């Protein structure tokens, strides 16, 4: 009796998931001969030429997991070009802003779509800092400040890429001593893994031969509606943070971390991004100080798009997150995917990071990497529906 009931349950469960399997093209293509695993596609990484910069070939890597979720990456900027997930009705959509070709990524004014930013993500005041008694001057590219590594940051260089197993791609880059004004040869690696639990995991590591600031993050612009909504103002965001780093008029931290309670910066309980944004001059573009239990991978943010049911959870080892509501997008980018107009607030970034301008704020968590040490950071973006 018990046993029969058990098998009935299994049968009903299989029946319930079968429509999902039917519309999963990859699952259909990759079915293997074993009928028991007929519903499960094999994870894979493929690669193809994406374009050329001079004589150098830019490669696109496509990772597909067993559930049919797809992530595409290019070695220019170690960039995420596509994240394709199912919505609550099992239709596929691309949940990051992107371009239709390499020309889009190369155009002046590409606002770091999907790329890795570094050597120092976000701003360093006046492009200057003093380390061990020596003052360094960096390339300035943003109102007299150094933003995202300077004029030619890690988003604008070609990385070496290689597939790792059937679900990951590892990118490496040597940033030479003096590049954009930074001291030390920095060996950087960034590995993107797509798990069968629909998690995009990004693992960063770096070593140096001279003391240098390091702050690496990914600059993907999410819009979980996958093109259905022109802005993210209806997305509901939760940030596990009780304070944020206050900034001046050129977005450099003042050094004070005021509480979010009772202000438009309060995302401790999920709320629509559009609810209070009008009260924040220019829109959200701040670093939130995460409430953490320790140094491990912890859930720090959730994002929900009610229309599609898509839900994203963000886990990180970092102490901060830059929530940027796409304030400088103005509909003018060319080569956009499907000819979409990326208007103000078309996408949002959740850049897990150390705090902006930390080298000039000794009380902020340390961002100086020294010879013999290894910089690491891990961030996971996990996708589901509800
Ligand atoms: C910064 C914004 C900047 C944007 C560039 C974000 O990380 O916080 O101020 O404009 O990157 O697209």
What does this structure look like?
- It is a single chain.
- This protein has 386 residues and is mainly beta.
- Helix content is 8%, strand content 36%.
- It is built from 3 helices and 26 strands.
- The chain has a 9-stranded antiparallel beta sheet with strand order 11-12-13-14-26-22-21-17-19, with no helix packed on it.
- A hairpin with a 4-residue loop joins strand 3 (70-74) and strand 4.
- 41% of the residues are buried.
- Bound molecules: beta-D-glucopyranose.
- Residues 111-112, 122, 251, 285, 322, 324, 328, 349, 351 line the site of beta-D-glucopyranose.
Question: How would you briefly describe this protein structure?
Answer:
This protein has 386 residues and is mostly beta strands. It has three helices and 26 strands.
Keywords:
3 helices, 9-stranded antiparallel beta sheet, 386 residues, mainly beta, 5-stranded antiparallel beta sheet
Blueprint (SSEs and pairs):
Blueprint: H1 2-22, H2 25-30, E1 44-53, E2 56-64, E3 70-74, E4 79-86, E5 92-94, H3 102-106, E6 116-117, E7 123-124, E8 128-131, E9 134-137, E10 146-147, E11 160-164, E12 168-175, E13 186-194, E14 199-208, E15 212-213, E16 217-218, E17 236-239, E18 241-245, E19 271-272, E20 285-290, E21 298-305, E22 310-316, E23 320-324, E24 349-353, E25 368-369, E26 375-385
Antiparallel strand pairs: 1-2, 2-3, 3-4, 4-5, 6-16, 7-10, 8-9, 11-12, 12-13, 13-14, 14-26, 15-25, 17-19, 17-21, 18-20, 20-23, 21-22, 22-26, 23-24
The chain binds beta-D-glucopyranose (BGC).
